[in-house]
Specification:
Aspartate Aminotransferase, domain 2, 7-stranded mixed sheet, Aspartate Aminotransferase, domain 1, single chain, alpha/beta, 4-stranded antiparallel sheet, 15 helices, 400 residues
């Protein structure tokens, strides 16, 4: 008889906790900076994917890592102090000076600034035009990264980009922060590595910083010989080769014992605990986010003051077919709109709302609103949708 696999809601509550009558009732947070390594502190044997030394984590962080790995369908995960810290550990493990990283536009803008001093070149591609990824590939390309769904509500054709990465024989990395595994699991569509800013929707309450990366266990690091941290002997660990020693979780292990060890962006145990608490309600919150966002988008699309609305669950949206393929449960929490009065009208809307907070934050329980030169962005929370619509209605009707 085939063992039954738990659903996402069950995993969000129980994954990472050992079985037993009282298991999981309390996840301890240890206020200490030292954990026993179980071996030679200078050259640990790396017998297991556990707490090897002080910088490699604590029990509550281990539960967080196992839980996210289970939710995303990966082999292992490594937590970090923030989303950017998780990305830095990924690229520290993959890239050498002179290497190139292909990134979708928004990620490229952020990465190009951050990684210039490392000698890594970030090449821009357009998630709406898969051919731009193909043209961007060069002999120096070592990875491709995209967002599953972006901060303006667009959805990436993951399988198409994954095919480009496979042809180039480089790992495909997906930032799944805004979709979360409840709406989309990138590994199911060809991703080799998944990253999250867990401060956002995973935690959900804007109270704790954190980031996490998930190893899908799908990439063969020895095929090209281009990833020395994974396929060359490590003198600091008795000459082992990560791929040979750890198989389908070699990348996660390399990140843990090399990048996390050397760069040190460890997550706070208390933040890990808070994010774990948030994850227990993730499935409930994400469905409410998606349902509310769709209701608000439908209402706005019929309003006389609104010129356009971007939300992929709306029929006719540019990304609607991708939403049906990748995110049939809903297109997430973020939508954008344009007002007929342009920027001034958008600024008035932001000033006149009472329930929406004027914050750039995305994906927490509360609803937020921001305005740019040509658009208004809403991150729709879990409040009653009628109250959110009423707030927007009074704000749009307010006198100039």
């Amino acid at each position: 008889m085939t063992e039954r696999l738990p659903g996402l809601s069950t995993l969000a509550v129980h994954a990472g906790i050992r079985s037993g009558a009282d298991a999981g009732l309390t996840i301890p947070v240890y206020e200490t900076a030292d954990f026993a390594s179980g071996g030679d502190n200078a050259l640990p044997e790396l017998p297991a994917f556990g707490n090897i030394s002080t910088r490699f984590g604590d029990p509550v962080t281990a539960v967080l890592e196992e839980r996210i790995a289970a939710l995303e369908g990966g082999t292992a995960a490594v937590a970090a102090a923030s989303g950017p810290a998780a990305l830095l550990m990924v690229f520290h493990t993959l890239l050498q000076p002179g290497d190139e990283l292909i990134a979708s536009r928004r990620l490229r803008d952020e990465a190009a600034r951050a990684y210039k001093s490392f000698g890594w070149n970030v090449v821009e591609a357009d998630s709406n035009d898969i051919a731009t990824f193909e043209r961007a590939v060069s002999p120096q390309t070592k990875a491709i990264i995209v967002e599953s769904t972006t901060g303006d509500g667009a959805i990436t054709d993951l399988e198409a980009v994954a095919e480009v990465a496979r042809t180039a024989n480089v790992p495909f990395i997906v930032d799944n922060t805004l979709a979360t595994p409840c709406l989309l699991r990138p590994i199911d569509h060809g991703a080799d590595i998944v990253v999250h800013s867990s401060s956002k929707i995973l935690g959900g309450h804007r109270d704790s910083l954190g980031g996490i990366l998930v190893d899908a266990g799908t990439f063969d690091w020895t095929a090209s010989g281009r990833y020395p941290l994974l396929n060359a002997p490590r003198s600091d660990y008795h000459g082992i080769t990560m791929q040979e020693a750890f198989g389908n979780f070699a990348f996660a292990m390399a990140v843990r014992v090399l990048a996390l060890r050397d760069l040190g962006p460890a997550i706070s145990p208390f933040n890990a605990f808070m994010i774990l608490n948030g994850i227990e309600t993730l499935a409930l919150r994400m469905q409410r986010h998606a349902d509310n966002a769709k209701a608000v988008a439908e209402w706005l699309s019929q309003h006389s003051a609104v010129s356009w609305v971007n939300y992929a669950s709306l029929p006719g949206d540019h990304h609607h077919n991708l939403a049906r393929k990748y995110m049939p449960k809903g297109a997430g929490t973020v939508l954008t709109l344009g007002l007929k009065g342009g920027h001034d009208a958008g600024a008035r809307l932001v000033s006149n709302v009472k329930l929406f907070s004027h914050l750039a934050a995305i994906g927490e329980t509360r609803s937020h609103i921001t305005a740019t030169s040509d658009a208004v962005r809403l991150s729709v929370g879990i409040e009653d949708k009628d109250d959110l619509i009423a707030d927007l209605e009074q704000a749009l009707a307010a006198p100039h």
